[in-house]
Amino acid sequence: MQFLRLLPLYLIAAAALAADLTGNWVVAQPLSDGTTRRTYFNLKQDGGKITGGIRTGQFYYKVAESNVVPEGFAITGAMMDGNQERKAQYQVKLVGGELHILTWRRANQPPAESVAHRTASGQGAMPAKIPVPALRQVPYNGLAKTPPMGWNSWNKFASRVDDASVRGMADAMVSSGMKDAGYVYINIDDTWEGERDANGNITSNKKFPDMKALADYVHGKGLKLGIYSSPGPNTCAGYEGTYGHEAQDAKTWAAWGIDYLKYDWCGARNIYTDDEMQAVYQKMGDALREAGRPIVYSLCQYGRADVWKWGPEVGGNLWRTTYDIHDSWDSMMKIGFGQGGLTQYAAPGHWNDPDMLEIGNGGMNENEYRVHMSLWSMLAAPLIAGNDLRTMTPAIKDILMNREVIAIDQDPAGKQGRRVWPDGGPEIWVRELAGGAHAIALFNNASEPAEMTVKWAEVGGTPKHLRDLWSHADVNAAGDGWMAEIPAHGVALLRVSK
Ligand code: GLA
Fold this sequence. Notes:
Blueprint: H1 2-18, E1 23-30, E2 36-46, E3 49-56, E4 59-69, E5 72-81, E6 84-95, E7 98-104, E8 112-119, E9 149-152, H2 154-157, H3 163-175, H4 178-181, E10 185-187, E11 193-196, E12 202-204, H5 211-220, E13 224-229, H6 246-256, E14 260-264, H7 277-291, E15 296-300, H8 307-310, E16 318-320, H9 329-337, E17 351-353, H10 366-378, E18 383-385, H11 394-400, H12 403-409, E19 418-421, E20 427-432, E21 438-444, E22 450-455, E23 465-468, E24 473-474, E25 481-486, E26 490-497
Parallel strand pairs: 9-10, 9-18, 10-13, 13-14, 14-15, 15-16, 16-17
Antiparallel strand pairs: 1-2, 1-8, 2-3, 3-4, 4-5, 5-6, 6-7, 7-8, 11-12, 19-20, 20-21, 21-26, 22-25, 23-24, 23-26
Helix pairs in contact: 3-5, 6-7, 9-10, 10-11, 10-12
C-alpha cells in the first residue's frame, strides 16, 4: 500500500528530473502597435532544482525557490524594489522541446498560459550597471513658474492612446475652452515607444507614425506636447526606456519638438538602488539641458527617497509624491489629504505632484470632483486633466475650468496650502496668496452633510472681502467667522482679502 501511494510521486519526480530546462527561453508576443513583448526565462536545472532569472516587462526576478510538482516545476521569482521585496509565481514544464509556462499575475485569477522557445544565451540579459554621475546641481530651466496645466493620456486611455486621440485631445483642449482657462500641455504617457533603430535612436511605434508631425500639429494649436520615458531599460508598461541612451533620447525628443518629459522610475529599479536615484535623475536633467530645448522635467518615482528634498537639484520642475491615483474617492482623498507635510518644498519652478486629475472619469460624483479640484489647487499641484476632453459634460467643464479655483492653483506666490484644522475629520486648509490674500477650503470628508465654521481669528483675522469660488458669489464677512452647510464629500472654497 505504502509503495503504491508513493509510486505516482516517484514517477512525477523522475519525469521532471529527466527533462532539462537549462537554457535561455523567450516568449515573444507581437502587439498590435508593431512592437513585440519579450519575456525571458534564463534557467539552469540541476536535478530537482532550478536557478536563474526571469525578465518580464519592467521586472527582473531571480529564481528564489523551485519545487518539483505534478505539472513540472513551481518557481518563485523574487526581486528587491527599493526596500520592498516583490515576488512572482510561475509553473514551467518541457513539452516537445518548448517551455510551457503558467504565470500568476493577480491573486484570485487563473494563471496566464504561454509558450517559450529556446533563444541564444545572453539574449534579454539585464544590461550591466552604468556608473552614476557624481552629484551636482543642475541649473533651473526657468520653466513652470506656476504649476503646469494640461492633459495626460494615462488615466483614461492607458495603452489605447494613439496619434488620432492625441490630435483629438488637442482640438478639444481648444474648442472646450480648456486652453483659454490655462491648460497647455498635451502629454503622451507610456506605450508610444517603438524599438531602437540601427543607430540606437528611439522610434515611436505604429500608433504614432510621425512624432514630429504630431508636435507640429499640437504647436499649431498654440499648445505644447509632452512625452514619457524611464531611466531603466523598460518603462512601466514594458516598452523601451532610455537606459544607456539618455542624451541621445533627449536630443531626439528635442528634434521632434517635445516640451515636457515625464520620467518614470519603473525598470530602473532592477539596476539602481534608491540611493542612486538622485544621480540617475540628474543625468536626464543634464541631458535635457544639453538637448537645447526648454523641456519641463517631471520626475515620477512615487515619492520615494524624499524626492522633494532633491527634486530641484536635478533640474526637476515637479515630482510625484505618491503611488498612482485611481478614480475613486478613497484613492483621491488618501493621496490629497496625505500631502500635509510637504508644504515647504513647493516653490515657483518646483512643485509637489500628487498625481494627475481623475475629474470626469466617472468614478466620483460632482461634489467629490470639486473636492479633487479644490484640494489640488490648495496644494499648488499640477493640474493635469486625465479625462476625455472630447466628451465632457457641462458640470465637468465647470469643475475643470472654474477660473477662480484655477487662479488659486496658479497663484504667482507659489506657496502650497496647509491644513489648519484638524486631521482625520472634516478639515480646513489655508493657502497664502500673493498680495496678502488667502484661500480657505472647508472640506467635509464625512458621508453626511455637515455644518462647518471657520473662525476668522484662526485664519489670520477678519477679511475685508470674501468670495465663494464655487458659487461665484461675494459673501458677507461680518461677524467672527463664516458658517456653511457642506455636502457629504464636499467643499466650500473661499478667497479672502484683508
Ligand atoms: C506608472 C506611473 C503612471 C503611468 C504608468 C505608465 O504607474 O506612475 O502615472 O505613467 O506608469 O505605465
